[in-house]
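Continuing the series of single-chain predictions for the mutant panel. This is the parent chain; the variants come on the following pages.
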Amino acid sequence: MNVLVDTSIWSLALRRKAHDLNPAQRATVAELTSLIQEGRARIIGLIRQELLSGIKTSSQYEKLHTVLRSFPDEPISTVDYEAAAKAGNDCRARGVAVSVADILICAIAIARDWSIFANDPDFKSYARILPLKLHTPRK
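Parent structure:
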């Protein structure tokens, strides 16, 4: 099964120094590495944009930009945005606040039968309402 990797995971691997990571974070990065090697890691343009935003220098931006170019964006259609709106409405109706970015990630993963790999605890809240599959490190 493919795995839609959230910004929080990519950021640990690509924007943080390995020696600054705690053991759980290192395990998370190792899992992302495994998913990449297996050809199962997926990204969308919105996540790419979040990762490239806030980079302090042009050289850091170019380095990250080059690395991310190895991962094509999953195409997003009108149906995906409509499904995200409905999923957001369903969550809000049950008292769970959503972000536009997170709920789009959820809708894409559900439509493609992918799991989501994220450190953001909000996805656990969404999973109580939506038919999400959350990916956890296997080691």
